[in-house]
Amino acid sequence: MIPQKDWVRDLVIYQIYPRSFFDSNGDGVGDLPGVIAKLDYLSQLGVNALWLSPFFASPNDDNGYDISDYRAILPEFGTMADCDELIRQCHARGMKFILDLVVNHSSDEHEWFRKSVKREAPYTDYYYWRDPVDGHAPNNWASCFGGSAWEFNEERGQYYLHYFSKKQPDLNWSCPALKAEIHELIRWWKARGVDGLRIDAISYLDKPADFPDAEGAPMPDGYVFPSLLTGRPGTHAYLHELNEKLFTPLNLMTVGEVSLRCDAELADYVSDERAEFDMAIPFLPPIAEYGQHVPTMLRDRLKTRYDVVPGGWWAQFMSNHDKPRQVSFFGNDGEFREVCAKALALVNHLSPGTPFVYQGEELGMTSIHLSSIDQYDDIGTHNDYRQRLLAGDSPEAAFKFAADLSRDNARTPMQWNASANAGFTTGTPWLKVNPNYVDINAEAQTSDPLSVFHFYRRLIALRGAHPALKNGDLQMLDGGNADVIAFSRTAGGETLTLAANLSDAPHAAPQGLTGEILLQSHERESGFDGVTLRPWEAVLFAAKG
Ligand code: NOJ
Ligand code: CA
């Protein structure tokens, strides 16, 4: 297949959660000047694209994924001049700048919504407004953050739809004026220098005109998730139009965050014939991965997605701001933390597609253990806790569930050094710093050649040197044990083979591993013995011919 924009396939994308990256002015909140201050660190790591989670004006009901002005910077994060400077400095270092575009919904504090409430033209239909049915919400849909997906607005005398929180009303893409606003917005940001877009919750754009009740098992609070909302033909038509009118002509790299009912739907967003996105982030709520046998899950996912996506290209990530930390959630954040971080990194970066690194992942940062529900900030964590209580769990069990899955696990401040607050802020951090910063931090790791940081740096550098990482076919191999994942990538006369034991127990190594060892997780000990894979031992081989 011919990729639309080949430069996109050379990217290694680093995700920054600005609130928690680096605080430049001591107010406890990370900011854009803080990102600028750390660009050299990111250059050293070797990533060549940054995606920043939203930094636009927002009342922060969902930490910036509720935008009240798409053309303004949240004052806590800095100014438009800071943003321009950040884009300029990224480009000066050869890094692309990727904006997080949240246009399935806005904030209820956006002026569009306020005017829509008052039925002011042209805003009247910018959102989904419906009359009550028998004095109730128009249907039984659940909101992702709990309760009904409908909220009654007294002033307008109607319900509005909010698939996420009630402060995130869904934008009505079937309203031509709204759609034109979003198109214009994309042009505006392109003119400021952005190279790409990560597009939030984009599989829900189109809604069925009759808003039927959802079918399926209700949540403990009685509402039902509308799976019928995902990937409707109307949504694909909006996306194709965006691609034709904007993404391709403006040479914008695009990655859509998409909910899927099955892996086959991934192809609908990324295959060349559809001409929608360059790649997609398949969104799965952490509950879907909770308690799974991780090697089996990763192996099955890789195989199925590779089979269904022509050309096999999608976003490869294990962590982001919506999931617990990968070493804690998928692996071992105790005795084997360092080798586990390296093994998972190898699996992710060897898989076909674009590798993503979420801030702190390159240090092997772990999830945090907080002691009570009030210490959590995440709106989703509070909802999980409520739902589990409603389902009859004890407060202890509900808390454990909510804490294990909390998005705050990934949102604790970046651990820069061993000084107070991990060097993230001189003030009081907005969210507790993980106390393990004394041992796990960037300063210690940049000066240790065998650290997780330097492992990531070497792994990222391999991409330039081995075409199989970019263009190679994927061949799944028999790892000989359910805990062992093994596969190879071949291109240009070279085969790269990875064998990774993703467990706390030793296992026999798969047969027939040959070639030069390029990287191995157990760098501090003796090398691979050719017979046994130690716990979390992962070895990458390169063979010619
Ligand atoms: C997906 C984002 O990644 C998540 O953080 C957010 O809560 C929802 N979309 C709603 O915008
Ligand atoms: Ca700050």
Question: Could you give a quick summary of the protein structure above?
Answer:
The protein is an alpha/beta fold and 545 residues long. Helices cover 28% and strands 17% of the residues.
From the structure above, extract its key features:
binds calcium ion; alpha/beta; globular; 545 residues; binds 1-deoxynojirimycin
Layout: helices, strands, pairs:
Layout: E1 13-16, H1 32-37, H2 39-45, E2 49-52, E3 56-57, E4 69-73, H3 80-92, E5 96-101, H4 111-117, E6 129-130, E7 150-153, E8 158-161, H5 176-191, E9 196-199, H6 233-247, E10 253-259, H7 266-270, E11 279-283, H8 294-308, E12 314-316, H9 326-329, H10 337-350, E13 353-358, H11 379-390, H12 395-405, H13 408-411, H14 442-446, H15 452-465, H16 467-471, E14 473-477, E15 484-491, E16 494-501, E17 507-508, E18 516-520, E19 532-533, E20 538-544
Parallel strand pairs: 1-2, 1-13, 2-5, 5-9, 9-10, 10-11, 12-13
Antiparallel strand pairs: 3-4, 6-8, 7-8, 14-15, 15-16, 16-20, 17-19, 18-20
Could you explain how this protein is built, in words?
With 545 residues, this protein is α/β, with parallel strands linked by helices. 28% of the residues lie in helices and 17% in strands. The chain contains 16 helices and 20 strands. It has helices spanning 32-37, 39-45, 80-92, 111-117, 176-191, 233-247, 266-270, 294-308, 326-329, 337-350, 379-390, 395-405, 408-411, 442-446, 452-465, 467-471; strands spanning 13-16, 49-52, 56-57, 69-73, 96-101, 129-130, 150-153, 158-161, 196-199, 253-259, 279-283, 314-316, 353-358, 473-477, 484-491, 494-501, 507-508, 516-520, 532-533, 538-544. An 8-stranded parallel beta sheet has the order 11-10-9-5-2-1-13-12. Strands 14-15-16-20-18 form a 5-stranded antiparallel beta sheet. A 3-stranded antiparallel beta sheet has the order 6-8-7, with no helix packed on it. Helix 6 (233-247) links the parallel strand 9 and strand 10 (253-259). Helix 10 runs parallel beside helix 15 (452-465) and helix 11 runs antiparallel to helix 12 (395-405). The longest helix is centred in the middle third of the chain and has 16 residues, at 176-191. The model has no long low-confidence stretch (mean pLDDT 97).
